[in-house]
């Protein structure tokens, strides 16, 4: 199974934003792609100073790079570069898969530290997305007020890790995947209402996750994760393997009910 080149670039960027060094196989893949794409470019430079042998080689190089077929995408060395890229991206996925669970596991302590105020806010004070500053002030509780302020900081601080976690699933087609989610919804006679995936399963400690946006802001997949809603049942940064287990447990529960 291959992966999308643009998605791989996105994964590298989100990993770096989260302070994670990408596996060496990804770095090497980008180096190789840069090399072959440069190789496919037509040579340039003056011709008068060439030897006979160099002149003949220049003709061969130019002819190869200007060669066309009935497929307009296969110009020059383009077909070779495209085939090379496809195989390389397949190999990258296979090489990186064993590392992805560990990348997420290594981020769990930092995740736990960041979301601590969210857990306190939801479980101790019952704060929700709809809670207002006036309601917090009315509590006349300085700790509650500080927690409320910390919630805003945590909500922003968690974004790089959350983005990396969802990008891992999207780039490498790991749980939760659209096919897995659609299969479970189909068992319930439902379909996804938007061309987006509910990633709450990746951050739920228990069964406090949804497939339809219930744990998203205002119950809409367009608005992103509602961290306070999930925090009521506990927050945890789940690996793709963890997510696959949760999906299978829910699928089994539906079939047995």
In short:
The protein is an all-alpha fold and 257 residues long.
Notable features of this structure?
elongated, mainly alpha, 257 residues
The overall strand count is 0
* Shape estimate: elongated
Approximate helicity band:
55-70%
Number of helices: 10
Structural category is mainly alpha
Mean pLDDT: 94
Low-confidence stretches: none
Through-space gap between termini? 34 Å
Largest sheet: none
SSE topology:
Blueprint: H1 5-17, H2 24-39, H3 52-66, H4 78-123, H5 133-138, H6 142-157, H7 159-172, H8 178-187, H9 227-231, H10 240-256
Description:
Helix content is 61%, strand content 0%. It has 257 residues and is mainly α. The protein has a domain at 98-256. It is elongated. It starts with a helix and ends with a helix. The model has no long low-confidence stretch (mean pLDDT 94).
């Amino acid at each position: 199974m291959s992966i999308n080149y643009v998605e791989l670039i996105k994964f590298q960027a989100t990993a770096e934003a989260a302070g994670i060094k990408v596996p060496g196989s990804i770095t090497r893949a980008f180096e190789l792609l840069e090399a072959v794409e440069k190789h496919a470019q037509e040579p340039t430079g003056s011709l008068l100073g060439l030897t006979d042998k160099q002149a003949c080689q220049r003709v061969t190089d130019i002819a190869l790079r200007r060669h066309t077929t009935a497929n307009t995408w296969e110009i020059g060395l383009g077909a070779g570069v495209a085939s090379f890229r496809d195989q390389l991206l397949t190999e990258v996925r296979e090489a990186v898969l064993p590392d992805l669970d560990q990348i997420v596991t290594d981020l769990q302590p930092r995740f736990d530290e960041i979301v601590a105020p969210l857990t306190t806010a939801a479980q101790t004070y019952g704060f929700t997305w709809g809670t207002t500053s006036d309601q917090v002030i009315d509590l006349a509780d300085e700790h509650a007020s500080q927690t409320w302020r910390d919630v805003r900081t945590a909500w922003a601080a968690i974004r790089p890790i959350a983005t990396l976690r969802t990008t891992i699933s999207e780039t490498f087609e790991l749980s939760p995947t659209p096919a897995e989610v659609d299969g479970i919804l189909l068992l319930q006679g439902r379909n996804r209402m938007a061309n987006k995936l509910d990633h709450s399963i990746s951050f739920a400690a228990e069964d406090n996750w949804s497939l339809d946006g219930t744990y998203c802001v205002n119950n809409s997949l367009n608005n992103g994760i509602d961290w306070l809603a999930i925090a009521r049942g506990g927050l945890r940064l789940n690996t793709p393997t963890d997510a696959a287990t949760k999906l299978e447990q829910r699928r089994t529960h539906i079939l047995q009910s």
